[in-house]
């Protein structure tokens, strides 16, 4: 279970990016975080994995407090927080297998990490997961030779290699074409069910949020103003989140948001 209470993030003397946010996620829930640019979506995810330091509040993962962890305790906690990035964050000169196995670095000694001495069980798990998402035949191919969708699958498998207790996805489809975007959303939805893994997806595409997640959380100016099932995410909720303007829709697949009203 991920339990967030009174989470606030403020940069200097500016208005808080997150303002006393409360959020509970458990089981195999797939939760979409939606909102206009600057609403605090990415900041929320980055506070959870401590890429951004919260100003105040509590973040607990399976009962363990994450806020204020330092050093080795923080590194160990991060092993259980998988992250999928919009820009893939792969090492292009390395093979798919090497990128995937990087998800195990937090579990290795310094010597094993430097020498890339991965236990046989890690290699076997890597092949199993790559086969599950359809990239096993690319194991020895360089990452920079893959398409965007293939690269994102590598990113998903790398995150799963951590054996995470929660998976965070920050705009995982923003750089992909429409068909590949839907494939990635279906994959995340399926993996959440198969692995009993809660997944939080920061996403601009409201249509995809309604189609592929079980719960939508809407942010505006760092405050949660909607939390419910997709069926209840109506035009009133949309107007409240986006201030009466049309919501972003990335169905063009060019990485830039188009404007499109809620269908």
TrEMBL record:
What domain of life is recorded for the organism? Answer: Bacteria
Show which residues constitute the signal peptide.
none
Q: Which InterPro entries match?
A: AAA+_ATPase, ABC_transporter-like_ATP-bd, ABC_transporter-like_CS, ABC_transpr_PhnC, MetN_ABC_transporter-like, P-loop_NTPase
Acidic residues composition bias: residue spans = 247-257
Give all residue intervals belonging to the ABC transporter domain. Answer: 2-246
Q: List the keywords (alphabetical).
A: ATP-binding, Cell membrane, Membrane, Nucleotide-binding, Translocase, Transport
Task: Give me the ranges of the annotated region Disordered.
Answer: 243-263
List, alphabetically, the Pfam families matched: ABC_tran
Membrane topology designation = Peripheral membrane protein
Q: Does the keyword ATP-binding apply?
A: yes
Question: Which locations, inside or outside the cell, does it occupy?
Answer: Cell inner membrane
Q: Which GO terms describe its molecular function?
A: ABC-type phosphonate transporter activity; ATP binding; ATP hydrolysis activity
Its Gene Ontology cellular component terms are: plasma membrane
* Presence of the UniProt keyword GTP-binding in the record: no
Show the CDD domains listed in the entry. Answer: ABC_PhnC_transporter
Q: Which NCBIfam families match?
A: ABC_phnC
Q: What is this protein called?
A: Phosphonate transport system ATP-binding protein
What organism is recorded for this protein? Answer: Vreelandella subglaciescola
